[in-house]
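Re: beginner question about structure tokens

> Can someone show what the tokenized structure looks like for a real chain? I only ever see the sequence side.

Sure, here's an example I had lying around. Input first:
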Amino acid sequence: MTTSPFDSTLERREAATLGMWAFLATEVLFFGPLFFGYVHGRLASPDAFVAGSHHMHIVLGTLNTAILMTSSLTMALGVRAARTGSGSLKTMLTLTALLGLTFLGVKGSEYWMEAKEVANASGAELQFYFLYFAMTGLHALHMTIGLGVIAWLWRHARGFGRHYHAPVEVSGLYWHFVDIVWVFLYPMFYLLERYSA
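And the corresponding structure tokens:
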């Protein structure tokens, strides 16, 4: 007879949540060295970082910030829908996915416009652009993975309800982590240097 290491649904949920928190802690290892590189570059070449920041498209960056914050709301509402069994889970997941895709579309357009700036950059300003593309690109990769997870949740939405919703909850944690990373990236590249000059 096969025995489960968990005695209740609550224990399974708590184990899944703890596992996701541990995973997110390891995700910091991906971004940590890049954040340290940014701090080093900003201290070593402040003028170049200010110049690079002035070339960022602040309207698009601000728009994307609003899009991501809204997607955090819809994801949170999706988690709530799964917990209560209200029946709106698919709707909230669809809205979250659409907002995520919109974010990636805006970011792609921004990359295309910024490619021209990179072609004209030189010296330490290239370091600013390298960190910008590396950090926002890694963020976009994580968002793409999150969209895949949301697609999986949407496909299996009927299986989630009051008694079983751990996958939706841990996916919500991941989505919020991705959004929080952007909350740091946005001021670093669009605001701090622009308004420190």
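Each token stands for a local structural state, so reading them left to right follows the chain. The chain has one domain: 32-196.
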